[in-house]
Amino acid sequence: MAGQQFQYDDSGNTFFYFLTSFVGLIVIPATYYLWPRDQNAEQLRLKSLRRVHGRCLWYRLRLMKSQQSIVPTLKKAALLFGWAVFLLLAYKVSKLDREYQEYNPYEVLNLDPGASLSEIKKQYRVLSLKFHPDKGGDEATFMRIAKAYAALTNEQSRQNWEMYGNPDGPGATSFGIALPAWIVDQKNSMLVLLVYGLAFMVILPVVVGTWWYRSIRYSGDQILINTTQLFMHFMYKTPNMNMKRLAMVLTAAFEFDPRSNKEATIRPTDNIEVPQLIRELGNINVKKKEPPFCYPYSLKARVLVLAHLARMEVSEDLEEDQRFVVRKSPALLQEMVNVGCQLTMMANSRGGFHAPRLVSIENCMKLTQMIVQGLQESKSPLLQLPHFEEEHLRYCISKKYKVRSLQDLVSLKDSDRRSMLRFLGEEKYDEVMAVLGSFPHITMETKLQVLDDEDSNNITAGSIVTVTVTLTRKRMAQGDLNKTKTKVWQNKSKGAKKTAKSKKKKLTKKKATPAPAKAKQANGNVAGNVSTQSQLSINLNCMKGHKSSKHWAVGIQIMLWTESNIKISFTECLNHYEDIQEWEALQQSIQRRERALLETKSKVTHPVYSLYFPEEKQEWWWLYIADRREQTLVSMPYHVCTLKDTEEVELKFPAPSKTGNYQYSVILRSDSYLGLDQIKPLKVTRNLSIAVRMELSSDFDEQLQNEEENVCLKLSTFSCSTSKS
């Protein structure tokens, strides 16, 4: 650009200013974020957990890591080196000579601005006698005095200085670049060009490309996209997936394939050690030729998972690989739960789409518990406690105590419990009770309502039902379970089942009526209420449509009082305001809200007591509503990751399309403990309400009259009363 000059720093002074600022911008934030916090804090935290978690594998590994890790020392050394460089540069800058003074001829001659010509000449003679080289003065100073005198005595030079600040007139704008001049020196041009090319054409594209390649391979939960597609394929192919099949699908994940994940390894000794484990485990479908279950990485991962569940000892090399597989499994199973829920949503919106059965999704949750605790499905939950072995269970399940679950053990009297656990010493008994007391005990309170509706208790077609669940976590201390009535899943004896059935029969006999027709419930038919008269009231309401004023909708609300059931056959052809699309949009908004909520809240709740899990696991839960008779999900599972003391969760689902009484279940499942799952019954009554959406032409009254006549013809045995609006 004309009139501008770019100058590099010949002396290198301004370059140090730039370098000091650059280093400071890196060192100061890095010190705040990377400086190791008080090392005693982690030691104190582990010390506080020692009494309960001292025998846990993850605790021992964490304690060893905190004692042997050199990462904090390396971080401190790097930060101290950065601060040393920063302080050295700051000291260098403070010593630099800064002579950037503005040229002023009046100051050179020691005159006030605006002095007269005679005063300028007089002052020049005085200074000449003092600083002239012939008189023994300084030549440089005299040259400055002569230049100032010439600038002020020449009329044109004086005007230029007053207007432009320069006796020579307007000059070119000069820009200083805080880089040393040797960078643009011709001798160093190839070196500088090589550095620029390496930085911007090699390093930067490689870094950006690596980040982009990784981001497109992984989902938001850091699961490989290929693994998610694999899970979706097999869950669609096998809607009813048992535990064996589920373990095969889990260990086929690409996270365990060395070609997709560098953390996974295949060792030369696997050809000897893995077949030996297979012989010890027994039948694990080794001969199955279906890919990828027959691949070496999948077979090895499956053997390691099954050996972990059987609590078998493996070699040191396989133990390292086993820890890697076990550590990855809970996140992969959570992804399988998400995939199952997505397929269920797709099945709800598309006819003929195969949705996974409820048992498949619940098996994923059960397998997560089994992997965290290192227990097989058929094993007793009591084996989660320390010092409990298989031979000790015979004392617990004897006829005298009948202890089969953790809740039964807590509910025993202290004297009976001490007598039953006499095989433990006093010290071990205290440790078992401390661990048992730290286990969670959750109470659930549910509230069912229809939000954004005038009558929040009236459930009609197209309405969104909201179940607010309040979860309260307490420690499983002695006596807590005796005060609660929440049902838990546990094995019931045959006698208990028979007594329950006999009670149900007695209740049904007492409630039986002589009516000839029996009311069917929870099957979509109308449950009739007995009355002396039969009436039918039809209200026809005109409502505006969704977007255009030309579109109208008719809502027909039918209230029946009859002695027998009536099946409304024409309800199947009615469109309930696109409830499926609204349900999908609602689920998407709920998932986005859940993710935003989890991002703002800490997922640190309570450490899980696990004897065989290699990593510290936080206590999380699944909460959902299901129809256990139909084996279907009613609401999508909510992953509760922030329950410390109390948390309120809203579960939403669309009202059933058919009227009747529905028996649902609010289910709470742990992702870490066996035997602590809970189920609470939920009764939903869907009232008889039909919403008809139709487009009316100009002859609205005629169409409305025809609609009334059609309804009356179908229900001709009743009297009709109509009202128009």
Structure in words:
The protein has 725 residues and is of the alpha+beta class. The chain has seven domains: 4-94; 105-165, DnaJ domain (Helix Hairpins), CATH 1.10.287; 185-217; 220-379, Sec63 N-terminal domain-like domain (Sec63 N-terminal domain-like fold); 380-438, DNA polymerase, domain 1; 440-497 and 515-525 and 578-687, Immunoglobulin-like (Sandwich), CATH 2.60.40; 529-563 and 695-725, no CATH class. It has 22 helices and 14 strands. It has helices at residues 13-34, 39-53, 57-68, 71-94, 105-108, 117-131, 139-153, 155-164, 189-217, 225-237, 243-251, 270-281, 296-309, 316-349, 358-373, 393-396, 406-411, 414-420, 426-438, 494-511, 579-600, 700-714; strands spanning 4-9, 173-180, 440-450, 464-475, 535-544, 552-561, 621-627, 632-633, 638-640, 646-654, 660-670, 678-686, 690-693, 720-723. Strands 7, 8, 9, 11 and 12 form a five-stranded antiparallel sheet that branches. A hairpin with a 4-residue loop joins strand 7 and strand 8. It comes from Myripristis murdjan (pinecone soldierfish). The chain crosses the membrane at residues 15-35, 70-91, 190-213. InterPro entries: C2_domain_sf (IPR035892), DnaJ_domain (IPR001623), Ig_E-set (IPR014756), J_dom_sf (IPR036869), Sec63-dom (IPR004179).
Compact summary:
The chain has helices at about 15-35, 40-55, 55-70, 70-95, 105-110, 115-130, 140-155, 155-165, 190-215, 225-235, 245-250, 270-280, 295-310, 315-350, 360-375, 395, 405-410, 415-420, 425-440, 495-510, 580-600, 700-715; strands spanning about 5-10, 175-180, 440-450, 465-475, 535-545, 550-560, 620-625, 630-635, 640, 645-655, 660-670, 680-685, 690-695, 720-725. By secondary structure, the protein is of the alpha+beta class. Strands 7, 8, 9, 11 and 12 form a five-stranded antiparallel sheet that branches.
